[in-house]
Amino acid sequence: MSEKKEICPVCGRVIDYYDKKIVRSRAGTRVYVYAVHVSRDPLSGKRVREKCYLGPEDSYVYVSKTHLRDGLMFYGLVKRDRVIDYLRNILHSIRGMDLSETELREIRLLLREALRDVEERLREASEKTQAPLD
């Protein structure tokens, strides 16, 4: 049985392995994550490594600081469930904001569209898992 390879969220290629870069400064230590793709140069036959930056191992410090008032913390692509955290924090932020009727109507429209999209993707996923094996 073969192991399922992860797909790079940056370029769409298979990830051969991950690489980390540790950066130390007076502000502290940060770890940055890269997806590494290994291939062969068609002319020379030499091994070629290409890296795609996936972001920090934990969160983006500066941009998160500028959005603390809204309750948002931003993460690198390596955190796969970050979208769920973003949505949860945005919904929490909406509850605490003083929004106009126009803004509330726009939010309602966007949430309805998002819910329709999620329902459709769930239906498609369910159909795939229930499909007969060939």
Written description of the protein model:
The chain has a domain at 1-57. It has 134 residues and is an alpha+beta fold. The relative contact order is 0.09. It is flat and about 65 Å long. The protein is built from 3 helices and 3 strands, in the order βββααα. The chain has helices at residues 61-65, 82-96, 101-130, and strands at 17-25, 28-40, 47-56. Helix content is 37%, strand content 24%. A 3-stranded antiparallel beta sheet has the order 1-2-3, with no helix packed on it.
Which characteristics define this entry?
134 residues, alpha+beta, 24% strand
Summarize the entry for a quick read.
By secondary structure, the chain is of the alpha+beta class. 37% of the residues lie in helices and 24% in strands.
What's the pLDDT, averaged over the residues? 88
Tally of contiguous helical segments: 3
What spatial form do the alpha-carbon principal axes imply?
Answer: flat
Query: How much is the radius of gyration in Å?
Result: 21 Å
**Could you tell me how far the N terminus lies from the C terminus, measured between alpha carbons in angstroms?**
18 Å
- Estimated structural class: alpha+beta
Count of extended strands: 3
Kindly report the oligomeric state of this protein: single chain
Weakly predicted, low-confidence segments:
none
Largest sheet: 3 strands, antiparallel
The amount of helix comes to 25-40%
Strand order of the largest sheet: 1-2-3
- The proportion of residues in beta strands is 15-25%
| Secondary-structure element order, N to C | EEEHHH
